[in-house]
Specification:
- α1 packs across α2 and α2 packs across α4.
- Helices cover about 75% and strands about 0% of the residues.
- It has about 180 residues and is mainly alpha-helical.
- It has two domains: about 80 residues, RNA polymerase sigma factor, region 2, helix turn helix motif (Rna Polymerase Sigma Factor, Chain: A, Orthogonal Bundle), CATH 1.10.1740.10; about 90 residues, Orthogonal Bundle (Arc Repressor Mutant, subunit A).
């Protein structure tokens, strides 16, 4: 079913909207959640919670694209569950991705830095716009969807070593890009 028809079902408050959303994007949502949580049961619960989140957000929202909207909700719910579980004993793709970016992008922890976080997000968006389509896809798959190198290799046709090399260069370029804009990394 087309995304616009699914959104129309949400506006009609039809329960079929959830069924169609699950049929179309359920596996992607599950993958996003599993990449963060590394626990099937928790991931299933987060995906189901995300459907409620979408139900509550549409209307008034009319997201375009729907997949990105749903994945953002799934990702945020999964990250919150991850933090709640505080599973330091399990290394998920979420941990691995955060570890990889730790030396390239500083984290803001104080209230005074909330504005800086918004500015940082805008800079990262600007940086991503400057990348080639392939490099942007690699970066987003790794650091937004938390995909493993193997999954990215299968999707892109590139070898894992090439992906690691490209991402290393992209992270270095990101660091330079942010430093030029006065962001302390």
């Amino acid at each position: 079913m087309d995304d616009s028809k699914i959104i129309d079902l949400f506006f009609e408050r039809s329960e079929k909207a959830i069924v169609e959303l699950s049929n179309k994007y359920g596996s992607v949502c599950m993958k996003v959640s599993m990449n963060v949580l590394n626990n099937h049961q928790d991931a299933e619960e987060c995906v189901n919670d995300s459907y409620l989140g979408v139900w509550n957000a549409i209307p008034p929202e009319k997201p375009n694209p729907l997949l990105a909207f749903v994945c953002r909700i799934v990702r945020n719910i999964s990250i919150n569950r991850y933090k709640k579980n505080n599973t330091k004993r399990r290394k998920s793709n979420y941990d691995l991705c955060l570890d990889e970016l730790e030396n390239y992008v500083s984290t803001q922890n104080t209230v005074e830095d909330e504005y800086a976080e918004t500015e940082l997000a805008a800079y990262i968006d600007e940086f991503l716009d400057s990348l080639s389509k392939t490099n942007r896809m690699l970066f987003v798959r790794r650091f937004w969807y938390m995909d493993s190198y193997e999954d990215i290799a299968n999707a892109s046709g590139l070898k894992e070593g090439a992906i690691r090399t490209r991402l290393s260069r992209i992270k270095s370029d990101l660091k330079l890009f942010l430093e030029k804009r006065g962001v302390i990394v």
